[in-house]
Specification:
- By secondary structure, the protein is α+β, with helices and mostly antiparallel strands.
- The chain folds into three domains: about 105-190, Pdz3 Domain (Roll); about 195-320 and about 340-380, 2-enoyl-CoA Hydratase, Chain A, domain 1 (Alpha-Beta Complex); about 395-490, 2-Layer Sandwich (Alpha-Beta Plaits), CATH 3.30.70.
- It contains eleven helices and 27 strands.
- Strand 8 and strand 9 form a beta hairpin.
- Helix 6 runs parallel beside helix 7 (about 245-255) and helix 7 (about 245-255) runs parallel beside helix 8.
- The chain starts with 9 loop residues before the first strand and ends with a strand.
Length: about 500
């Protein structure tokens, strides 16, 4: 299955200030006080003013910009930019805002769209959808016999509306390819994002999604577990949530000045660092992840693991690493727009690539009991990061000026990206080296920019141009958007 999330990590702009939303994707709920909900206006005619507003915003902010053509209306144009961008009518947007309540009526299900347009289900533990038989990874086909193909998550949210005690029928296709109809009873639910669990004698904090309340809930959870020397943070099937909430949660567990994440738009780069001293609890932290751990959850994992505050266990994560912003328009409608890539502390893009865990779990081991057994094995053996399930021999990395390896007919590949620390460059380099066994060494080119020493990883050397070109091609294809540009440099002798 092609897995590219439409989980929106958003910043919402109202006049001159910023507001972060709890959830972006509709969770199949309506506010408890709502008497009725609007129908989506499918064939709206857009005023010239609104069209001008939209096109101006898109041209200025869209990460994947292309001009509109004469055959497209506004909604189809926005959707054509990338699979994560969307336009909401005033009614749809009003419904979206009203649905961000502490309590809601629904089935306890978060929905995400992949790049193929399929809607992937993520039921909450203990919720009506989960109890009825919906599983993470199931593909939604219809609601009450209405096909949801080509509909946005917001339009689908409207289809699922209802009141407490009534039923809604979801048609889904399971991961095994079987089509099912599942009848789910709507219930009043709370939006708590964290749950404490016990697996034998292991304490675990399950984070379902990152919301505005998650930081406070996470702090209380750690206080409840203050006597524990080891704590598990379970992020399996966590589709993300609010980017800024994930940053706040990471800050809670990191020391001051640690890099958490970098947000790179087409015009600017902003790095978020910890501005406070986190909790002084010295427990060891393990994070559980799987192939449905995505977006803000991946941001949180990278922040903790690359700052050596936690180890990760499980499967390679989903790979959703772009940010979406919400722009409110003058007529009450809104534009959801992809505006930036999300980079890990080491400077790596994980979008469409995912994050590999420190400890790999066998592909057939997917149940909680498998994670528990593997966790205990790690504790018993006191495994280190180097004792991965799939060990990789990394070449020696040394810091050099490129002039030190100047030789006739020597070729190297330089990554067109500067890092603000040797350690960040090292982490990035080691991940790249794993992709090509022909690389025998890594060199760091140094440069002083605005008074700061920066590092650029260069790979090689290669003794002939053909080998270097082949490695360059292989790296470009395999790493895809982890690298901005890979350029080949020939070093001539004196």
């Amino acid at each position: 299955m092609n897995k590219k999330f439409n989980n929106l990590m958003i910043t919402m702009k109202f006049n001159q200030y910023t507001l972060c939303f709890i959830f972006v994707c509709i969770l199949f709920y309506i506010p408890c006080s709502a008497e009725s909900l609007p129908n989506a206006d499918k064939h709206k005619k857009y005023s010239k003013q609104i069209q001008t507003e939209i096109l101006k915003i898109v041209k200025k902010h869209a990460l994947f910009y292309h001009p509109i053509n004469n055959k497209q209306n506004i909604k189809s144009y926005i959707k054509s930019l990338d699979s994560f961008s969307d336009y909401l009518s005033a009614d749809e947007y009003s419904f979206f805002k009203s649905s961000q309540k502490k309590k809601y009526v629904g089935v306890g299900l978060q929905l995400e769209k992949n790049s193929s347009g399929q809607m992937i289900c993520f039921p909450f533990t203990g919720g009506p959808a989960k109890l009825a038989g919906i599983k993470s990874g199931d593909i939604l086909i219809s609601i009450n016999n209405t096909n949801i193909q080509n509909k946005s998550v917001f339009e689908i949210g409207l289809l699922s509306k209802g009141i407490v005690g009534t039923y809604v029928t979801f048609s889904i296709v399971t991961k095994d390819g079987f089509e099912k109809k599942i009848r789910i009873k709507r219930a009043e639910l709370s939006s708590s994002s964290i749950y404490l669990k016990k697996f034998d004698n292991l304490s675990a904090i399950e984070i379902r999604s990152f919301t505005l309340s998650t930081r406070a809930e996470l702090k209380n959870a750690f206080l409840d577990l203050k006597k524990q020397s080891l704590v598990i943070i379970d992020l399996r099937n966590n589709p993300g949530g609010d980017m800024y909430a994930a940053i706040d949660c990471a800050m809670l567990l990191l020391s001051k000045h640690k890099t958490i994440v970098t947000v790179k738009s087409k015009d600017s780069t902003e790095t978020f660092k910890s501005t406070i001293t986190g909790m002084k609890k010295k427990c060891e932290i393990f994070i559980w992840q799987n192939d449905y751990t995505a977006s803000a959850a991946e941001l949180f994992i990278a922040a903790l693991t690359q700052n050596q505050r936690a180890h990760s266990i499980g499967k390679k994560s989903f790979g959703k690493g772009t940010r979406q912003e919400v722009f409110e328009l003058s007529d009450g409608s809104a534009l959801f727009l992809t505006t930036a890539y999300i980079l890990t502390p080491s400077g790596m893009k994980y979008h469409s690539v995912g994050l590999e865990p420190d400890f790999f779990l066998n592909s057939k081991e997917t149940k909680t009991k498998d994670y528990v057994a593997f966790q205990k094995k790690i504790i018993t053996r006191k495994m280190s990061i180097q004792e991965k399930k799939i060990p990789v021999k990394l070449p020696k990395i040394r810091k050099d000026n490129l002039s030190n390896i100047n030789k006739v007919n020597t070729y190297i590949i330089c990554i067109d990206q500067w890092f603000n620390s040797e350690n960040a460059a090292r982490i990035f380099s080691e991940r790249i080296v794993q992709s090509d066994q022909n690389i025998t060494n890594v060199f760091f080119q140094q440069n002083q920019i605005e008074g700061k020493i920066l590092y650029m990883p260069c790979l090689g050397p290669f003794t002939n141009k053909t080998t270097a070109e082949n490695s360059k091609k292989k790296l470009s294809k395999k790493l895809q958007n982890q690298l901005k540009i890979i350029h080949l440099t020939k070093l001539h002798g004196p």
